[in-house]
Amino acid sequence: MTNAASGAWSVGPTRRQRAKQPASESSCDFFGIVTATYGLAYLYCQRGDVAQAIRLLERGMTLCREREFSVWLPQHTGYLGYAYARAGRIDEGLALLDRALEIYDATRAWPFRALLTGT
Fold this sequence. Notes:
- The protein is an all-alpha fold.
- It is 71% helix and 0% strand.
- It has a single domain (12-117), classed as Tetratricopeptide repeat domain (Serine Threonine Protein Phosphatase 5, Tetratricopeptide repeat).
- The chain has helices at 3-6, 13-20, 30-47, 50-67, 73-86, 90-107, 113-117.
- The mean pLDDT is 80.
Protein backbone atom coordinates (compact mmCIF):
# COMPACT_ATOMS: atom_id res chain seq x y z
CA MET A 1 0.00 0.00 0.00
CA THR A 2 1.38 3.40 -0.90
CA ASN A 3 1.78 6.13 1.68
CA ALA A 4 -0.91 8.16 -0.04
CA ALA A 5 -3.36 5.25 0.05
CA SER A 6 -2.61 4.44 3.69
CA GLY A 7 -3.32 7.98 4.87
CA ALA A 8 0.31 8.96 5.45
CA TRP A 9 -0.31 11.78 2.99
CA SER A 10 -2.15 13.72 5.68
CA VAL A 11 1.01 13.95 7.80
CA GLY A 12 2.93 17.19 7.62
CA PRO A 13 0.45 19.75 6.28
CA THR A 14 2.53 22.56 7.78
CA ARG A 15 5.58 21.56 5.76
CA ARG A 16 3.47 21.10 2.67
CA GLN A 17 2.01 24.59 3.06
CA ARG A 18 5.46 26.11 3.60
CA ALA A 19 6.77 24.49 0.41
CA LYS A 20 3.92 26.03 -1.58
CA GLN A 21 4.35 29.57 -0.22
CA PRO A 22 6.59 32.19 -1.83
CA ALA A 23 9.98 32.41 -0.17
CA SER A 24 11.47 35.50 1.36
CA GLU A 25 14.96 36.18 0.01
CA SER A 26 16.54 36.90 3.36
CA SER A 27 15.40 33.94 5.44
CA CYS A 28 15.06 31.08 3.05
CA ASP A 29 16.53 27.63 2.56
CA PHE A 30 16.16 27.54 -1.21
CA PHE A 31 17.77 24.12 -1.55
CA GLY A 32 15.28 22.78 0.99
CA ILE A 33 12.39 24.32 -0.92
CA VAL A 34 13.62 22.81 -4.19
CA THR A 35 13.91 19.43 -2.51
CA ALA A 36 10.45 19.74 -0.95
CA THR A 37 8.78 20.86 -4.18
CA TYR A 38 10.11 17.77 -5.95
CA GLY A 39 8.95 15.42 -3.22
CA LEU A 40 5.53 17.02 -2.96
CA ALA A 41 5.12 17.05 -6.73
CA TYR A 42 5.84 13.32 -6.78
CA LEU A 43 3.15 12.74 -4.14
CA TYR A 44 0.64 14.92 -5.99
CA CYS A 45 1.28 12.99 -9.22
CA GLN A 46 0.77 9.70 -7.38
CA ARG A 47 -2.55 11.00 -6.05
CA GLY A 48 -3.60 12.12 -9.53
CA ASP A 49 -3.41 15.86 -8.81
CA VAL A 50 -1.19 16.56 -11.80
CA ALA A 51 -2.09 20.27 -11.93
CA GLN A 52 -0.72 20.82 -8.42
CA ALA A 53 2.38 18.79 -9.26
CA ILE A 54 2.98 20.95 -12.33
CA ARG A 55 2.73 24.15 -10.28
CA LEU A 56 5.28 22.84 -7.78
CA LEU A 57 7.67 21.53 -10.43
CA GLU A 58 7.56 24.78 -12.40
CA ARG A 59 8.39 26.66 -9.19
CA GLY A 60 11.19 24.22 -8.40
CA MET A 61 12.64 24.53 -11.89
CA THR A 62 12.64 28.32 -11.61
CA LEU A 63 14.51 28.13 -8.29
CA CYS A 64 16.97 25.60 -9.72
CA ARG A 65 17.81 27.96 -12.55
CA GLU A 66 17.92 31.13 -10.43
CA ARG A 67 20.03 29.53 -7.68
CA GLU A 68 22.07 27.32 -10.02
CA PHE A 69 21.10 24.06 -8.29
CA SER A 70 22.31 21.92 -11.16
CA VAL A 71 21.97 18.73 -9.14
CA TRP A 72 18.16 19.16 -8.99
CA LEU A 73 17.53 20.73 -12.39
CA PRO A 74 17.40 17.51 -14.46
CA GLN A 75 15.01 15.89 -11.99
CA HIS A 76 12.61 18.83 -11.93
CA THR A 77 12.79 19.15 -15.71
CA GLY A 78 12.22 15.45 -16.31
CA TYR A 79 9.42 15.04 -13.82
CA LEU A 80 7.74 18.17 -15.14
CA GLY A 81 7.89 16.54 -18.56
CA TYR A 82 6.23 13.46 -17.10
CA ALA A 83 3.56 15.59 -15.41
CA TYR A 84 2.91 17.52 -18.63
CA ALA A 85 2.48 14.22 -20.49
CA ARG A 86 0.03 12.97 -17.86
CA ALA A 87 -1.89 16.23 -18.24
CA GLY A 88 -2.20 15.62 -21.99
CA ARG A 89 0.57 18.02 -22.98
CA ILE A 90 2.49 15.25 -24.73
CA ASP A 91 4.73 17.33 -27.02
CA GLU A 92 5.78 19.66 -24.20
CA GLY A 93 6.33 16.69 -21.93
CA LEU A 94 8.55 14.83 -24.37
CA ALA A 95 10.54 17.99 -25.09
CA LEU A 96 11.19 18.46 -21.35
CA LEU A 97 12.21 14.83 -20.93
CA ASP A 98 14.73 15.27 -23.76
CA ARG A 99 15.92 18.51 -22.16
CA ALA A 100 16.32 16.75 -18.80
CA LEU A 101 18.65 14.21 -20.39
CA GLU A 102 20.67 17.02 -22.01
CA ILE A 103 20.98 18.76 -18.64
CA TYR A 104 21.98 15.50 -17.01
CA ASP A 105 24.69 14.93 -19.64
CA ALA A 106 26.01 18.46 -19.04
CA THR A 107 25.88 18.39 -15.21
CA ARG A 108 26.34 14.71 -14.40
CA ALA A 109 23.90 14.85 -11.49
CA TRP A 110 24.88 11.28 -10.58
CA PRO A 111 22.65 10.74 -7.54
CA PHE A 112 19.59 10.88 -9.78
CA ARG A 113 20.90 9.14 -12.89
CA ALA A 114 18.54 6.18 -12.60
CA LEU A 115 15.48 8.44 -12.53
CA LEU A 116 16.28 9.73 -15.99
CA THR A 117 18.05 6.87 -17.70
CA GLY A 118 16.70 3.75 -16.03
CA THR A 119 20.23 2.51 -15.33
